[in-house]
Description:
Elements: E1 12-21, E2 27-36, E3 41-45, E4 48-54, E5 63-69, H1 80-88, E6 92-96, H2 115-128, E7 136-146, H3 148-156, H4 166-172, H5 177-183, E8 207-211, H6 220-224, E9 231-236, H7 248-254, E10 260-264, H8 278-283, H9 285-288, H10 296-314
Parallel strand pairs: 1-4, 5-6, 5-7, 7-8, 8-9, 9-10
Antiparallel strand pairs: 1-2, 2-6, 3-4
Helix pairs in contact: 1-10, 2-3
Amino acid sequence: MFMSARAQAEATVGFQRLTYDVPGGGQVEAGIWYPSEGVEKPEPISLNVQDVVPDGAIEGSGLPLIVISHGTGGSYAGHYDTAIALAKAGFVAAALTHPGDNFRDDSRALFIYERPRQVSQLLDFVLERWTGRASLSKERIGAFGFSSGGFTVLALVGGRYDLAMSPAHCKAYPGEWPCQHIANRPVPAGMTVPPLNGDDADARIKAAVIAAPALGYAFGKAGLAGVHEPIQLWRAADDRILPQPFYAQAVYDALPSAPQYIVVPHAGHDDFLAPCSAELARRVPEICASEPGFDRTAFHRQFNAAIVEFFEANLR
């Protein structure tokens, strides 16, 4: 039986890191967090540390499931603290490392339209082949996405994007980080860009949390007209990677029903990532530095609580 966040406040969190096969060959890395029992212990996750029960037994039945899509150059580990908060509240959280768009391999980073299918394949695996699948509810499924993951989740809930808008946007705003990202790498041979895509929707996803969505301007009112699931939308007020008003604000303005919209004062783009350990901050300072006076750890306590509350309300 699914239990509320309050009832699960003292729940321990089990964790599995695994790989799974996908159609066409290849394996995908994933992490899964879930209610468990036993003694949590510190475990490395990328360059951070999490307190979990490694491979602990799953507890409960009819558990709602949240799939997580990271941003460009990230990994399944980028939102581990949010996944833990969800697991403590009685959810199962599953995150993948997007093939070809992660910190080890960015060879397919421009193929952003491949991402929604990859998340649907993660859902297929968790619901049909994961060892804990019998404890899941197939009717209560949500998604969380950050940056390129936000684009991914918008597509999964029915957003139709027009990637042909990007060249004109980047001609007008060549200094934006995404435009420089595109300009600094050649378009791969054989790459085909769908000008308008409506084939990515996954009807299994009933609610979505979207933080700082990439390519927000590429949807528009017509592209988002078919999005009817509850949405919680986040914007960092000082986002210099995806600046106003073309990304989160463009999505807010175009959605047919107003989402729950939260603008975080003084936050930067990467403040939606989990707080950094000292080692991660030393090695990758560009994703760990916040504006003076902004406390990412304190913000994430509020951020994670709001996400849990949203999914509890919308995946009843």
